[in-house]
Design brief:
Pfam families: Gpi16. InterPro entries: PIG-T (IPR007245). The protein is α+β, with helices and mostly antiparallel strands. Helix content is 20%, strand content 33%. It starts with a strand and ends with a helix.
């Protein structure tokens, strides 16, 4: 077994700093489990030294060949930050797995099992990635590793949940999968108070098979804003300023502990401490054989100045990605709408993009309304290779794949009418008035090599959408519940009193007539006066 840890830090042109942690564990000479052996209980016990045992048991239990899980929060700004080190930056939770099997039912059963197992392992709501969110795209997610040749077909299962948020309860079990936990090595920098204060943060788990063995890669990506946490308004950063921690010692079981800092392209700056190696515009540090505390950072002598893009003053910054995308769901009503996508080609050459849309069944596409315009000119020839899987209400989402061609330095507009489903009142979430989160769309450039073959570039995720469905007046069910409870309480109270209380007839003497009561009162007063006069006479006679 082999364990390596690596940290890449880069200063962005808007003053922010991106950090990418990578913890890789290689289980040498290991292969995924053959799914045909799942029917037998002869799987040998797995004994690992560095490989995470809890994860290995899940992989063996469900015969997973390749798996990718990400939990992200925030919007990745491709135009300003460029491509991330790890391409899976879609908001919320995303899970996909390659599994071999002789039947679709067995693959679906194992897919359900691995979802629930990962939900318990990472304390995340991955159990909600049920069949209503599961798709099988054909082209957008090729296997990143190798697939064993067992004579069985491999199937892809993919699901995403834009409403899932990453928090401390996900980070804690994530760190427990590391050999040194967060006690030493680069993992000591993963301070939850600073991680979840970042402008963008995400964690990922990637399992794939290579000829040398099974590889597990745990990664953490962060985007900090030093200008926000700096009192001087400077973009200076260091381990202590970003994470409030230093690397006191390396992980003793790690074969390598490396840190790379991408050097800025212009300006005056200072990187400290002195890098051990500078290669390809990056400063490299090896923390393995050093026992001193490391606090790597970069300093600038002047304050950061935001670049103002104005046609009369300066030219805009060159794009960091070959294309830009904007995605919206238009329409004022709650039963109809229009999906609108605007793509801008930032380069002179023609660009082909693989477009993937996975939409829950609550939003249904009308393919006959697809319209494609290039610079406001209708161009239906710019869309091809359309693949569409119809949604099934309460059972399956829609999957739409196509290839879009973007001419050089042009703007392409894609639009399609959609219908919004009318749900039962029991199917709405607790915050029904907020709306439903729709998963992001995925665009992948198609690169043609010299021999004519096509390869996929880095994926680009759009932000998620919020759809407003027809929502019932939930105050009416509340009123019905209150009225019903009142009636039931009245009936129950009456019946309870009849069954438990003992009723006794009490006879009350009638009051005398008013005249008779007045005469009796006067008679009592006369008797009182006569008694008083007799007592006075008796006392006088005694004195004489």
């Amino acid at each position: 077994e082999k364990f390596e840890e690596y940290l890449s830090i880069k200063s962005l042109r808007d003053g922010r700093v991106t950090s990418s942690f990578s913890f890789t564990t290689l289980l040498r000479d290991a292969i995924p489990r053959d799914p045909r052996t799942l029917a037998f209980d002869d799987d040998t016990s797995q004994h690992y030294t560095l490989f995470p045992l809890s994860l290995g048991q899940i992989l063996r239990q469900y015969a997973i060949t390749e798996m990718h899980l990400t939990l992200n929060a925030g919007k990745w700004n491709y135009d300003t930050w460029g491509y991330p080190d790890e391409p899976d930056v879609g908001v919320g939770a995303e899970l996909r797995a390659w599994m071999a099997g002789d039947s679709i039912s067995s693959i679906d059963e194992r897919w359900q099992g691995v979802r629930n197992a990962l939900a318990g392992l990472f304390c995340a709501s991955l159990g909600s990635l049920d069949e209503q969110r599961t798709t099988s795209p054909r082209l957008s997610f090729p296997p990143e590793g190798a697939l064993p040749d067992w004579g069985l077909p491999h199937e892809l299962r993919h699901a995403s949940h834009a409403s899932e948020h990453v928090c401390t309860e996900n980070l804690t079990p994530f760190l427990k999968l590391l050999p040194c936990k967060s006690l030493s090595g680069l993992a000591t920098l993963l301070n939850p108070h600073r991680i979840f204060d970042a402008d963008w943060h995400g964690i990922g788990l990637h399992v794939l098979w290579r000829p040398e063995g099974v590889e597990v890669r745990l990664n953490v990506q962060l985007v900090f804003d030093p200008l926000r946490i700096s009192a001087q308004g400077k973009q200076d950063w260091s381990f202590h300023s970003l994470f409030d921690r230093k690397v006191e010692k390396a992980c003793p079981v790690a074969s390598s502990t490396r840190v790379s800092v991408e050097l800025p392209n212009s300006g005056v700056y200072r990187v400290y401490p002195e890098p051990q190696e500078i290669r390809d515009g990056k400063a490299y540090y090896n923390l393995k054989n050093n026992n001193e505390a490391w606090n790597i950072g970069t300093m600038w002598p002047t304050d950061f100045e935001y670049r103002i893009c104005h046609a009369a003053l300066s030219s805009p910054d060159p794009a960091l990605v070959p294309f830009s995308v904007t995605r919206n769901l238009l329409g004022p009503t709650q039963d109809r709408g229009q999906l609108s996508i605007v793509l801008t080609n930032n380069q002179q050459d023609t660009l082909q993009l693989l477009y993937l849309e996975t939409m829950p069944w609550i939003v249904q596409f009308y393919l006959h309304t697809i319209r494609v315009h290039s610079d406001n000119v209708p161009r239906d020839d710019l869309i091809s290779n359309i693949s569409y899987v119809l949604p099934v209400p309460h059972a399956r989402p829609a999957t739409f794949e196509s290839v879009l061609t973007l001419p050089g330095r042009s703007t392409l507009t894609f639009s399609m009418d959609v219908a919004k489903a009318f749900l039962r009142y029991t199917e709405h979430p607790p915050d029904a008035q907020r709306g439903w989160d729709l998963p992001p769309a995925i665009f992948t450039p198609l690169n043609q090599s010299l021999n004519g073959s096509m390869s996929l570039g880095s994926r680009v995720y759009t932000p998620s959408l919020l759809v407003d469905l027809a929502t019932p007046d939930f105050s009416m069910p509340y009123n019905v519940i209150i009225f019903t409870c009142s009636v039931m309480a009245f009936i129950f109270g009456s019946v309870f009193n009849v069954l438990t209380r003992k009723f006794i007839v009490v006879r009350v003497r009638p009051d005398p007539p008013r005249n008779q009561s007045v005469s009796r009162t006067e008679k009592r007063l006369e008797d009182t006066d006569s008694d008083t006069s007799n007592e006075l006479n008796t006392s006088k006679s005694g004195v004489h």
